[in-house]
Amino acid sequence: MSVIDGQVAPGPGGLCQKGWTAGELLRHPGRLTTPLVHGEPASWDEAMDYVVNRIRTCEPDEVAVFGGGGLTNEKAYLLGKFARVALKTSQIDYNGRFCMSSAAAAGNRAFGLDRGMPFPLTDLRTADTVLLAGSNPAETMPPFLRHLEGARLIVIDPRRTATAERATLHLQPAPGTDLALALGLLHTAVIEGLVDKEYIAERTTGFDDAWRIAAQWWPEQTERVTGVSAADQRAAVQMLAGSSYVLTGRGTEQHASGTDTVSAWINLALALGLPGRTGSGYGCLTGQGNGQGGREHGQKADQLPGYRKIDDPAARAHVMAVWGVDELPGPGRSAYELLTADDLKAMLVFGSNPVVSAPRAAHVTERMKVLDLLVVADFVLSETAAMADVVFPVTQWAEEDGTMTNLEGRVIRRRKALDPPPGVRSDLELINGLAARLGVPTGFPTSPREAFEELRKASQGGLSDYSGITYERLDAEQLHWPVPSTDHPGTPRLFLDRFAHADGLARFVPVDHTGPAEPPDAEFPLQATTGRVLQHYQSGAQTRRIGELAAAVPGTYVEVHPDTAARAGLVPGEPAHVVSRRGRVTATVRCVPSMRVDAVFLPFHFPGDGRANLLTNPALDPTSRMPEFKVCAVRLERACDES
């Protein structure tokens, strides 16, 4: 057993620091064990009656549901059904909209289907080269790195992260210029004769339209926009010739042009002939515990179970038949639009902490404060739960059965290991109790197995078809969706024969660089980007309560190049203000020589005036509705100037 970069690596597996400390939280003294109504303990019946009585004073679309990418498949499925059948509202979305929605949209339009990785993780072990665009798995998912040990890494990130330190080649573009860099690499691949012309002709369509744009992005032009040298661009493309994979993450997605940016990376992969072949490909790294499954089964505003589109008449008919209803609401609003809507009266939040995690967080907080009813299901008093009218204490990972779907589309059994504390119930029991009080006494099982059996029927025939998956099969074998029958072996590798479009061809999508929605200017001359650190996860509501993790990284900091800090009069280790048009964050200064002089970095795990999302820009991608978390214009101020 070894410890590498804060991770335990026993044999071929491994745990990250967040993993081996997670058990501490199950018996944390701050664990919620009784419902709260306006901060006072109440019985489950009292709390559920209060919620339902308030909901009955609202019209259906005045009530919203906000879910989470960490919920099990069973919870995500029943939450979507609860919203549309029991509440009869169209207003449901989830925090996964902030996570992988741009990659999902780009994957759907390129391949006709979105699965984070259309191949098993283990395939990466045979790669010559892996390009990571906007991902830092050395800190966000350390065990994943074991699959990359034999490959040369090309890392694309404005920061020299722990992952970039391991790279053979680190390309360090200005924040918000990933799309330009991808266009430049495609240009170089064409000019240097490295594209796979036979593959392009036989397995794709639309290359000429994509090339007309990329033709304008010769290496020197790309260098002027991105800051990445022409020589490094050429070196990267040469490295990708052979058995290679292109993998994208949040850094390249969380932009107002995130879908187009991911499309540009897919275009590069298609030009090189990578997708749909054993030993090469394109994939997207997930960001949450059930980032893949959480977006497949209906808690997203525009989707029904099985990855069906909610505005597709055939999809609606199938799901209505399974649910035994005659009508369903249409598509609702995306996550940020939902959180800031001024016509909502009530919101139910499951598995999320948007007061910390949403962009333009101060505005989101104010909107949630004026709701007539805010309900939160959680197991600790998160910042959002602390604002709620009603809080329900729910079970956690070790206390419940269910399934999750990982980034490679493999469905995984979660098995109950111990009983929850007295007074705690599961999300499924909560949904069941609320639905019964709303006049829908059946159709909301409290058993995860029963919920999964219904999910199988609802997903049958959809893109993410789980109908052939059973708990018994998962106990005995590995299954990657789609699995359309109980004798089907599953689909670990998609697209080997054809892509999911009707003609079987992948699509090049013509895209061009437009730059950040909010470029720097004289008042806000720097660009801020955000991300995760090894010790913390998402909004930090859980990890900040674990002593070992909180001691390692106790609060917000800002990484700044020493020259940038000097110009602003900042002192390492002292507090400073990072200011955008939307808010101000107080953070401890860290001088990092590898930072770009025009950029600063903040982790987004911390509450109060340390919330990085007080700064971030809610400009939305027109296709995915992903906010532009990864770049906004800021300035630095000395905190001591206030005194």
Question: What keyword list fits this structure?
Answer:
643 residues, alpha/beta, seven-stranded mixed sheet, six-stranded mixed barrel, globular, disordered N terminus
- Determine the mean pLDDT: 94
Globally, the shape reads globular
Class of secondary structure makeup:
alpha/beta
Oligomer: single chain
Please work out how many helical segments DSSP would assign.
23
Counting DSSP E segments of at least 2 residues, the number of strands comes to 29
Rg from Cα: 24 Å
Helix proportion of residues, in percent? Answer: 25-40%
Uncertain stretches: 1-11
Describe the SSE topology:
Layout: E1 2-4, E2 7-9, H1 17-21, E3 36-37, E4 40-41, H2 44-55, E5 63-67, H3 73-86, E6 92-94, H4 101-111, E7 129-133, H5 137-140, E8 152-156, H6 162-165, E9 169-171, H7 178-191, H8 197-203, E10 204-205, H9 207-214, H10 219-226, H11 230-240, E11 244-248, H12 250-253, H13 258-271, E12 281-284, E13 303-304, E14 308-309, H14 313-323, H15 335-339, E15 346-350, H16 354-357, H17 361-369, E16 373-378, H18 383-387, E17 390-393, E18 402-405, E19 410-414, H19 427-437, H20 448-459, H21 471-476, E20 479-480, E21 506-507, E22 526-531, H22 547-552, E23 557-560, H23 562-567, E24 575-579, E25 584-591, E26 599-603, E27 617-620, E28 627-628, E29 632-638
Parallel strand pairs: 5-6, 5-15, 7-8, 7-11, 8-9, 10-21, 11-12, 15-16, 16-17, 22-26, 23-25
Antiparallel strand pairs: 1-2, 3-4, 3-17, 13-14, 18-19, 19-20, 22-29, 23-26, 24-25, 24-29, 27-28
Helix pairs in contact: 2-19, 3-19, 3-20, 4-13, 7-10, 7-11, 7-13, 10-11, 14-20
Structure description:
With 643 residues, the protein is of the alpha/beta class. The chain has 23 helices and 29 strands. Strands 4-3-17-16-15-5-6 form a 7-stranded mixed β-sheet. A 6-stranded mixed barrel has the order 22-26-23-25-24-29. It has a 5-stranded parallel β-sheet with strand order 9-8-7-11-12. A hairpin with a 3-residue loop joins strand 13 (303-304) and strand 14 (308-309). Helix 7 packs antiparallel against helix 10 (219-226) and helix 7 (178-191) crosses helix 11. It is globular and about 65 Å long. The termini are far apart. Residues 1-11 have low confidence and may be disordered.
